[in-house]
Amino acid sequence: MKNFNQILGVSLLIFLLGKTLGQSQNQAFNDGEKLQLPLNYKINWMSSLNDNFYLSDLTLPGTHDTMALYGGPAVDCQSWTLADQLKAGIRYLDFRAFAFGDSLHLMHGVVFELSTFKEALETIKTFLSEYPTETVLVRVKPELFNKENVQGLVEQAIYNDRNVWVSSTIPNLGEVRGKVVFVQKDSFKLGVPLFETDTKGDYEVTHIKDKEQEIVQHVNQAINQCGGSSIVLTYSSGTGIGTFEGMFLTPKRVAEKIDPWLYNYLQVYLNNVPDICMGVIAMDYPGLDLIQTIIKFNAQL
Fold it and tell me: Which of 26, 37, 206, 236 is most deeply packed, by most CB within 10 A?
């Protein structure tokens, strides 16, 4: 936070949120498979940002379980392909990787999401070659067994590739335009450090209102952590699968409720304290209006 007045303003906004948030008639949530961009949609939105700003100063739209398009209601978290997510403005990707032989299969739990890491990396690089002003953050999370082999296979895939960032130092945007920036956490040690506002079990949703309050707490924490030596990550996603009370709350059903609420929640900040940094917000089924709202926090930079 920049000063006391900003802290006070945020606190007041939190108090007012319960009275101002209503049902949103916008494209905050999307479950359509086909990406339909308006004619004036700015795919290369990072082109207007100053080179000197560090990645940890930015507010970035991301997806949770980026590749989870297949497997049914209990598994699916996204509807757009990786290429379409990038065109829509997503700049943080969440890959769950299983080391099988000499290949990395991208998974959601035990479900293979019909792509390897190399294939996904090629999709990102193709996008960045067309839009070289952009940068894409990638988290690779080892899944299942053979987790210790994941990093080595990633290193093989990016060997001698100058268009990747694997240093633990937070770069400024000018240093990584046109590049993939890896994010390190736990057993994966390539790239910039990641600080997650979520704690163990926060992904479990039994009541939507409780999830909303968790997100409020996590966003406040992200605001306070932004601008440091780590990328700050908040998940808006969740599922009730595996719980008793929320057994019918699939990731999609949670997103149907949370995404419009999140849009309105962020709009209050945007209209009153637009220069706040929130780090990465990783979502399920985000719509274009929600993505654009997150992007607009960078307009003051």
Answer: 236
Number of domains the chain contains? 1
pLDDT-derived band of residue 248, with 50, 70 and 90 as boundaries?
confident
- Residue 32 belongs to a domain: no
Structure tokens at 254: 């949670």
Instruction: Pick the closest to residue 214 from 254, 242, 250 (CA basis).
Output: 254
Lowest average pLDDT, out of 177-181, 185-189, 277-281, 282-286, goes to 185-189
Cα separation, 158 vs 182, in Å, equals 11
Closest CA to 84 of 37, 139, 140, 130: 37
pTM of the model: 0.93
6 within a domain of the structure (yes/no): no
- Scanning the structure block, which residue is given the tokens 């130092």? 169
Beta bridge partners of residue 233, listed in sequence order: 196, 280
Q: What is the pLDDT of residue 166?
A: 97
Evaluate whether residue 8 is within a structural domain.
no
CATH number at residue 170: 3.20.20.190
Assign 279 a pLDDT band (cuts: 50, 70, 90).
very high
Inside any domain, residue 9? no
Quote the CA–CA distance of 2 and 268 in Å, as a whole number. 18
Strand 111-116 and strand 103-108: the pairing is antiparallel
Residue 26 has pLDDT above 90, yes or no: no
Q: Which two tokens stand for residue 127?
A: 């996008």
